[in-house]
């Protein structure tokens, strides 16, 4: 019996879309840092990237190692970018 996928697993097929469609990365980073889902060093590295796509790519690379942190990211994304998440879930 397969367990129900975690919320972050729903976003896996949409990583490419997330990279290209999330344009306001900083508020997500702020919340991830506040919830200890990323460290200050990663936060600084991601913020230093020149484009939102580069920031999202780096952020997703950091989150790949931890399903719990991916779930935190997904919950933040649902709050901050509700319509985007609904669209991505509809296209998955």
TrEMBL record:
InterPro entries: CARD, DEATH-like_dom_sf, NLRP_Inflammasome. Signal peptide: none annotated. One of its GO terms (cellular component) is cytosol. GO terms for biological process: inflammatory response; innate immune response; regulation of apoptotic process. Keywords: Cytoplasm, Immunity, Inflammatory response, Innate immunity. Its main location: cytoplasm. PROSITE patterns: CARD (PS50209). Residues 17-92 form the CARD domain. It is found in: Cytoplasm, Cytosol. This is CARD domain-containing protein. It comes from Oryzias sinensis (Chinese medaka). The lineage of its organism: Eukaryota, Metazoa, Chordata, Craniata, Vertebrata.
